[in-house]
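Section 5: illustrative case.
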């Protein structure tokens, strides 16, 4: 893996890490790395990105453990360095303690169970733009073959042949959403241009307003979807698919119908969470603020669907990029009791 391509990690950081390794040998552990990088250009944000990208997977701790512990470890190292510079004696100066005992006294790890495969792959995609340790579709590729009638490899071959005879052909394509760009039509309705990736590459999916309005709650990055549509083939342009309908892809191989499918052999995959906002008793000021917040936090990296509850009637409101900070702002607008994640 080229660490220079990791988000928040630049060439200067890579040069620093490489130079230290060449001068003083391989890094023996995560804490050894942090100690040797203390005072250098490798800050907390950079180390967090390296953890998410899997740079420390060869060491003993899980990524979840490192993410929960790295800030405290770095603070301990920095605090020790300051005390050393000030001439204060610390417990690390005790020469009659075995190295392993010193190490356990120095650092406190919050040991956690490793993230599931889907989360690990999602981190790699976020940090590197590609999947490193696997692909979200690997374990369901046989199921995909039973449903999909076309894949990206076949579409690339169509590009090379430049055969327009397949224009308008009905197809079924399965992949994972990697990006979504929304656009307002002349009728002031929303449509979208999605990039969807299968095991062979990625392709553009055009989602006109009628299809978008029916499927907007599942059009979220990292969702695996089944696209029923038609080929759009134009001279000197990549082959695209115009979507007629989009559903979450999960296959019951017995009935050949769409439903929940497992990504990890034994467990059923959890559906993406939905954020429900109860606005039954909200006043107009609250509703205006809420509309503004949903619009502001909506973008190309939506990670959760949003719906509102009005007197028991549920209405979809698209999606937003939800963080803890955004969630707190929504709670302030409509009240914590009116915000539900499920």
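Designed sequence:
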């Amino acid at each position: 893996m080229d660490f220079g391509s990791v988000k928040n990690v630049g060439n200067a950081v890579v040069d620093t890490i490489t130079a230290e390794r060449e001068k003083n040998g391989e890094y023996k552990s995560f804490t050894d790395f942090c100690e040797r990088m203390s005072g250098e250009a490798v800050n907390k944000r950079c180390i967090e990105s390296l953890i998410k990208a899997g740079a420390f997977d060869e060491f003993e701790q899980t990524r979840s453990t490192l993410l929960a512990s790295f800030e405290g470890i770095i603070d301990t190292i920095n605090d020790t360095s300051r005390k050393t510079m000030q001439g204060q004696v610390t417990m690390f100066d005790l020469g009659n303690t075995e190295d392993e005992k010193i190490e356990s006294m120095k650092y406190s790890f919050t040991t956690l169970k490793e993230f599931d495969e889907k989360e690990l792959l999602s981190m790699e995609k976020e940090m590197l733009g590609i999947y490193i340790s696997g692909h979200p579709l690997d374990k369901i590729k046989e199921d995909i073959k039973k449903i999909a009638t076309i894949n990206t490899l076949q579409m690339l071959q169509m590009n090379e042949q430049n055969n327009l005879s397949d224009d308008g052909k009905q197809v079924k394509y399965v992949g994972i959403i990697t990006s979504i760009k929304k656009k307002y039509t002349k009728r002031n309705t929303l449509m979208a241009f999605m990039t969807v990736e299968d095991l062979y590459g990625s392709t553009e999916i055009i989602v006109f307003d009628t299809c978008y309005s029916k499927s907007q709650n599942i059009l979220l990055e990292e969702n695996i979807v089944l696209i029923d549509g038609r080929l759009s083939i134009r001279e000197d342009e990549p082959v695209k698919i115009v979507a007629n309908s989009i559903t979450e892809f999960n296959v019951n191989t017995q009935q050949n119908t769409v439903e929940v499918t497992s990504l990890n052999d034994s467990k059923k995959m959890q559906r993406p969470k939905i954020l429900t906002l109860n606005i039954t008793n909200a006043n107009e000021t609250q509703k205006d603020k809420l509309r503004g917040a949903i619009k502001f936090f909506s973008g190309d990296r939506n990670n959760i669907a949003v719906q509102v509850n009005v007197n028991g009637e549920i209405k979809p409101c698209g999606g937003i990029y939800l963080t803890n900070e955004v969630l707190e702002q929504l709670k302030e607008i409509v009240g914590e009791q009116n915000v539900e994640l499920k």
